[in-house]
Amino acid sequence: MPRSSNNVASRRRRKKILNEAKGYWGSRSKVYSVAKNAVEKALQYQYRDRKARKREFRKLWIIRINAGARLNEVSYSQLMGAMKTKNMEINRKVLADLAVHEPDTFAAIVKQAVN
After folding, report:
1. What range does the domain containing 19 cover?
2. Non-local CB neighbours of 76 within 8 Å, separated by 6+ positions
3. Rounded CA gap, 21 and 89, in Å?
4. Rounded-to-integer distance, Cα 86 and Cα 20, Å
5. Which end of the chain, N or C, is less surrounded by CB atoms within 10 Å?
6. What is the pTM of this model?
7. CB contact at 8 A, 105 and 98
């Protein structure tokens, strides 16, 4: 019996990789072996940066809360400590948004937490 080659599946596999590599520069989007490496690396970066994005946003929120808190003559750590003792459960994302867009509300929260 002659050997059968599964061309349909092979072509589909290669086409999938080349479609994922669309928009890449030069042979990274044209040559299968190069595109495969580029796509694998891109997927590694995606996985890594999904985690990094969360860290970066948390850092940004802390910076914004600290800036808002210092306008109200208290440091970030003092504010968060005071909020913890008073059981005020407002997450950093919301606090940062209030500090930037509604400073009066943020000031009221700081006053309630610290006093």
Report:
1. 9-114
2. 62, 65, 66, 69, 70
3. 45
4. 51
5. N
6. 0.76
7. yes
Amino acid occupying residue 1: M
Residue 107 lies in a domain: yes
Element (H, E) at 4: none
pLDDT in tens, 54-78: 999 999 999 999 999 999 999 999 9
DSSP 25: S
Nearest-CA neighbor of 21 among 33, 10, 35? 35
Question: Domains in the chain: how many in total?
Answer: 1
Q: Residue 93 sits in a domain of what CATH number?
A: 1.10.1900.20
Three-class SS state of 31: coil
